Amino acid sequence: LRAAMNESMKAPYRLEYTYTRSTGPVIGQFLTGLRDGKIQGTRTSDGRVIVPATEYDPITSESLDTLVDVSDRGQIQTWSFVARPLPRHPVDHPFAWALIQLDGADTAMLHVVRADNADQLSTGARVKAVWADERVGRIQDIRYFELEA
């Protein structure tokens, strides 16, 4: 009896989190569009187009579900140049973080613009998306934007 009292009780235990987050119908469709090489935004009740697509209007909190295609070209609204990228950056060459308003959108999205130096960049400069060779449905399906000639 004394030996049994000194033994530790043991039971199998498995810690797990089995829930997989759903992107929902709007964000899911936006990501599927990226996989298919197109960019979509959501149309608000007053006609604005928000890119990237979102499920709610940031001004009215109204639920949104109407997606519309926008261009993969647009213009730089503002930018910040990175001359020497760090290992955690999305590209290994000089680039700018830029807010880009795509043609057909009323808002700007943050993404990477490839540039060799800051002198190549300006507010209002035109850019176009460079798509990844293999797309899977994530924002990195747009590798970066490049300046239009």
Write the layout of secondary structure elements.
Elements: H1 2-6, H2 24-35, E1 39-43, E2 49-50, E3 67-70, E4 73-82, E5 95-102, E6 109-114, E7 126-131, E8 142-147
Parallel strand pairs: 6-8
Antiparallel strand pairs: 1-2, 1-3, 4-5, 4-7, 5-6, 7-8
For the largest sheet, list the strands in their spatial order.
4-5-6-8-7
The average pLDDT score comes to 93
Radius of gyration: 23 Å
N to C succession of SSEs:
HHEEEEEEEE
The general outline is extended
As a percent range, the share of strand residues is: 25-35%
Structural class: mainly beta
How far the N terminus sits from the C terminus, by CA atoms, comes to 86 Å
Q: In DSSP terms, counting alpha (H) and pi (I) runs of 4 or more, how many helices? A: 2
Stretches where pLDDT is under 50 for at least 5 consecutive residues are: none
Main pleated sheet: 5 strands, mixed, barrel
Number of beta-strand segments: 8
Helix percentage: 10-25%
Question: Overview of this structure, please?
Answer:
The chain is 11% helix and 32% strand. It has 149 residues and is mainly beta. Strands 4-5-6-8-7 form a 5-stranded mixed β-barrel. It is extended, with a radius of gyration of 23 Å. The mean pLDDT is 93.
